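We store amino acids, tokens; thus:
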Amino acid sequence: MNVLITGGASGLGAAVARRIADDGGRPLVIDLHPPKYDVEHMQADLTDRACAERAVHSLARQAGGLDAVVTAAGIDACGTLAAIPAEDWERVIQVNLLGTAAVVRAALPYLVHAPNGRVVTCASTLGLRALSDATAYCASKFGVVGFSRALAAELAGQVGVTMLVPGGMDTAFFDGRDEQYKPGPDAQLNRPENVAAAVAYALAQPPGCEVRELVVCPAREPSWP
């Protein structure tokens, strides 16, 4: 199985890539930064649609096609709407929502010809529940929720679509934030490997069977339900 993974240099994306490889598949990574482990990859800025499209087509041709896409790339910009620079706020939307759409759009010609083509989008519990000082992230992830549900209806019977809704994970995603926006010392965060196992489960469903939406969060996730 050839699986294209955005954000595969670290965090959830890297965990998904490793799980795919462990299961005998072929992970293909797109990330702004080069992965620190051995994997086929291309560097691309998802805010640049043409760059993202080139990376998708290049990796797909290199692998002889795609069986699945997992859009794990994501960034954040914490703070009140008035405090966040406009360019930082808009970049969150560009990476999380527009980048997701660009990659999936470019991958569709390959997925529709795969025996069991699938897309797994990465939303968030904050795509279903709004939180103060998270307007950019919530807007982007609420958008991913709408995009994923509409895409599932559009591609029904052609390409399977799973919307992953992860809660807090123990990754570098929180690094560099002001202390008030970091998980507390007693926060219970999921290991990305656990969430990657859920992604692998969705990808492993037989033709005609789909996991449409999948919430994976710590038992004491504060943002869910």
